[in-house]
Design goal:
Length: about 120
């Protein structure tokens, strides 16, 4: 059984930073493609970033590139999302997801098999 456990989110002021983490238990973490998605109230779940196995390439939604950074530590079975210069519109529940090697497309939620419980990030304006 694969389980994904996200760190607690939080409340930050606009312009601030926050780092989320997601620890995976179960099967070999290093072979998963890992991604972050988010969902704001009344909106669909949207892609934030992915780090693809085995290539290791990183991908970002256009509006997040440059502000967000996804990384992974295979020794700790953990994927991170560093979020800088946060904006009010970044407020959402953030989910980490684990999927197969090189999922296609990597930005679709249905490409991922396992999901965390979600963590709330609130950015005050």
């Amino acid at each position: 059984q694969v389980q994904l456990v996200e760190s607690e989110g939080g409340l930050v002021h606009a312009g601030g930073s926050l780092r989320l983490s997601c620890t995976v238990s179960g099967r070999a973490f290093s072979t998963y493609t890992m991604a972050w998605f988010r969902q704001a109230p009344g909106k669909e779940r949207e892609f934030v970033a992915a780090i693809v196995w085995p290539i290791g390439s990183t991908y970002y939604a256009d509006s997040r590139e440059g502000r967000f950074t996804i990384s992974r530590d295979n020794a700790k079975n953990t994927v991170y999302l560093q979020m800088n210069s946060l904006k009010f519109e970044d407020t959402a529940v953030y989910y980490c997801a684990a999927g197969p090697p090189s999922p296609s497309p990597y930005s679709w939620p249905r490409s991922y098999e396992y999901w965390g419980q979600g963590t709330q990030v609130t950015v005050s304006s």
